[in-house]
Amino acid sequence: MRRADQTLTVDQVHRMRTRGQLHAHELSATSEPLPAAKNLCLGQWVMIGALALILGVSGCSTPPSAWPAGKSPRILASFPPLYCFAKNLVDDDAAVLSLLTATGPHDYHVTPKDALVVQGADLFLINGLGLDDAFTSRLKNSSGNIKLRFIPLGEAIPTKQLRKLTEEDKHDHHGHSHAHGTHDPHVWLGIPEAVVMVERLRDELKKADPARSADYDSRARAYVARLKQLQAEGQELLSKIDPEKRQLITMHDSLYYLARSFGRQHSTEGGRRAGRQPDGQADQAVRGPQCPGHNRGAAIPRKRRPNSQPGGRAQSRPGAQDRPCGYTGNRRRERPERRLV
Question: Measured between alpha carbons, how far is residue 157 from residues 86, 141, 153, 163 in Å?
Fold first, then answer.
């Protein structure tokens, strides 16, 4: 029997238990006092260190920051178009991130990870006008970032320049049952509207980073010039199209500002709800005006011509004067065209 006051090392306890030399009451006595640190072997220290590392990484570590070190101000855009505006103005002088990358404002759901990104931002660029206000406000409030500057760029556009939404637009937008504000929020798609947003962003950057005011001014001038040049080139190309055919037909009215930028008439005859089948008006808008005297759905008059082979059956083909609008060649029957617009 060993003395009760004798302390055994971990290795000694293991060897004695293996040989059957340590009784149960002796094991309980030896397990009371913890073995001294000096009695731990190298392997045991490695195991303890590995356990501490695992616990630290899994339960107590801080996630790495999404923001690059050494760049200021930190600019967060709610979705990619605003990221493009900011990146063209700051170049590599500041850090720019886009909150949304793989989803749109209509399908986004707030996550704790995104709240951490907002926590490290200095400027938060949003579109406003009811498009991204709700989820960006939630992120701002949950981040605890009291120094964050919230900048709705779309609201810098004069009201007279905005398209007012109808009741159908407000309650049946993109197939979702949520409401926007009182005006069409897709303003970044219009060239004049984008210019206003860029100039508002320039002013906000100068406030946040006065030392680079001259750089922001020069980059904003260059970017606005590029936007206006794009508009002029597009208008010149589209001016060559027959005026009666200068119509942009879409399955949703989000491209109103884009169409207006290039002097096009915008039609949503295809329906305002995404996924809804086009109606007769949409079909007529795509096909254009019908030939005089041609009724939709009427049988196509066919002329018979003899087969070149003796005794062969007579064949028939529609004559040129009998072909309907949009007739494209050797088809046995006219089928409705499938077009992506």
Answer: 17, 26, 8, 11
